[in-house]
Amino acid sequence: MSLLNLIQKRRSIYNLKKGVPLTQTEITELVTQTLKYCPSAFNSQSARVVLLYNEQNQKLWDIVKQKLQTIVPKENFAKTAEKINSFAAGFATILYFEDEETISGLQQKYPLYQENFPIWSLQSAGMLQFAVWTALAEKNIGASLQHYNPLIDDEVRQSWNLPQSWKLLAQMPIGGIGAPAESKTFLPIEERIKVFS
To answer: pTM of the entire structure?
Structure first.
């Protein structure tokens, strides 16, 4: 399958199952190699990843649910809980972080670019998330990208004893594909690209 085909195959899958075509070890290796080779400005390698399997996966989504219970009106919480349970029903969750200590070090070392390093860091983080997501899609593993940060940041760092400098950017629940992605609509492409020659 070509890279373009894989990019088209990568979709948000919300109906996740435990069963996946790879082992936990194989998924860990896939994420590890993608993390290792993902580009970053000045080769900063500021991305950090945590993989949560089994009861650790459930623990994360229990934290999310508990935090949301404090801010979502009671009459609306059943729908929220259903959504969170769909993420917990998957095989694992990948947490994406950026190490702010690394970024700060680069800002001090290269003051001329200090305002750009946080921007470049986020660009690299986006590339990593997309690369992992696409690699998972190639293996017929469903995923979506969620953002319950900063609501859960402190408890996540505390629960898994992570450095304070690790800033949580996104959560990616993954699993078997229980139902295909919904159809996608597109803006007229002419509104989004211009070509000059």
So the answer is: 0.96
